[in-house]
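Is this the right way to post structure tokens for a design question? Let me know if I should format differently. Anyway, here goes:
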């Protein structure tokens, strides 16, 4: 492509600027050049769909017109053979519509609100990369809490050239809204903020009062003249174990908060539906006063990035999920899995209540949701604790940012007592 944007990108950009919208100005340089190749192989193949003779797409078919598949593979998955074909770069239309309907069900505040049709990504890792591509320029600052998933560094700093700019996540035992707002109001018209609830690594979700304060701070920023891209990493959405904790995504408020705030929701079944290996995720846009044409333009740019990186997400994974979501047992089974995780969460709370002596070894960070919780060891290096714990107690944990992250999602309930006993003992041993 030459220095001038491709003609298809120019058309999408014109849609995003229509009516004086600020959406175009939120894009990165790469985002402004992004487009979906609707006039190339994919577009011409779509035009030929249903033709009596179709020699367009690079797939193979039997003499009777069914996909040409190896029988040894076909027998492994109880799906039509069409699941072995390419999926569209946008994702399977039926799955995109189903996920949009599910978003409304899981977030009742979205019932009458307008937002884009989700784009299917190769799970959230890829989705974050797509969002970074569209909105982050080299050297651009990304505001986020100082306790974050370390893969952001590869996705947003190394791949996109952005600069992670953290603020302390907690003020006491609550989310540090004031710290976030201070960075939002620093010089510069455009701001990108990343919010991840339930948070990895801490397992903290904004309380209902936190969520109101976060949205109010973002509104003050845009009313002060900032253009804000709010990237919402909702990987662990729905796994909330306490009353008073926000059960809806911030997207439900931010998607129509202000014309100068674009909400970008990243979510998917990986953690929500316990299908880590399927690698299916979703990217959804919401902005007050955005038109259907503008949402289509954002979808096309995102799908163009998908096309230019992985071509499309696995059809088998998408088809399996669509089949599961149509199964009448889905909701009951999902609740059962949620209950398993909540029992572990409740057990950890009970363990802490029963062992006040642990306070001499470590401090638990605030947590109320998700797969994880963190502790801060007292008077001893977290990495030393991790190594000694593994060597002497055959117990594995993760160290991130000076904290010890515990994935209780992967520990049976009857081993949690031993896990924390081991932590306490190791810290005491290392001190002496």
């Amino acid at each position: 492509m030459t220095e001038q944007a491709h003609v298809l990108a120019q058309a999408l950009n014109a849609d995003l600027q229509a009516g004086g919208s600020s959406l175009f100005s939120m894009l990165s340089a790469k985002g402004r050049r992004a487009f979906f190749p609707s006039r190339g192989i994919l577009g011409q193949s779509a035009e030929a769909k249903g033709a009596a003779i179709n020699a367009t797409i690079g797939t193979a078919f039997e003499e009777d017109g069914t996909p040409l598949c190896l029988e040894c593979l076909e027998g492994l998955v109880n799906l039509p053979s069409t699941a072995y074909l390419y999926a569209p770069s946008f994702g399977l239309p039926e799955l995109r519509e189903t996920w949009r309907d599910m978003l409304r069900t899981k977030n009742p505040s979205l019932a009458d609100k307008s937002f884009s049709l989700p784009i299917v990504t190769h799970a959230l890792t890829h989705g974050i990369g797509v969002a970074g591509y569209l909105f982050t320029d080299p050297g651009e600052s990304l505001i986020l809490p100082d306790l974050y998933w370390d893969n952001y560094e590869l996705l947003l700093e190394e791949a996109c050239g952005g600069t992670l700019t953290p603020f302390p996540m907690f003020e006491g035992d609550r989310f540090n809204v004031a710290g976030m707002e201070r960075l939002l109001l620093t010089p510069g018209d455009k701001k990108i903020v990343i919010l991840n609830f339930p948070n990895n690594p801490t397992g903290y979700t904004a309380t209902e009062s936190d969520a109101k304060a976060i949205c109010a701070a973002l509104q003050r920023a845009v009313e002060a003249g900032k253009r804000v891209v709010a990237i919402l990493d909702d990987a662990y959405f729905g796994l909330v174990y306490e009353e008073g904790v926000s059960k809806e995504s911030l997207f439900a408020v931010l998607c129509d908060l202000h014309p100068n705030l674009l909400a970008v929701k990243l979510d998917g079944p990986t953690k929500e539906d316990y299908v880590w290996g399927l690698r299916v995720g979703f990217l959804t846009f919401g902005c007050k006063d955005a038109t259907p044409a503008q949402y289509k333009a954002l979808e096309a740019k995102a799908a163009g990035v998908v096309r230019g990186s992985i071509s499309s997400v696995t059809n088998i994974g998408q088809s399996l999920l669509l089949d599961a979501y149509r199964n009448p047992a889905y909701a009951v089974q999902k609740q059962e899995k949620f209950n398993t995780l909540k029992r572990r969460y409740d057990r950890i709370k009970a363990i802490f209540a029963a062992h006040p002596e642990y306070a001499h070894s470590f401090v638990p960070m605030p947590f109320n949701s998700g797969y994880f919780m963190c502790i801060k060891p007292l008077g001893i290096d977290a990495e030393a604790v991790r190594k000694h714990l593994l060597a002497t107690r055959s117990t594995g944990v993760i160290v991130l940012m000076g904290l010890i992250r515990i994935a209780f999602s992967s520990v049976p309930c009857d081993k949690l007592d031993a896990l924390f006993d081991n932590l306490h003992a190791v810290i005491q041993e290392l001190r002496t």
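Format looks fine. Someone answered above. Worth noting: The chain has three domains: 8-34+89-325, 37-85, 330-431. Residues 364 and 375 are 4 Å apart (CA to CA).
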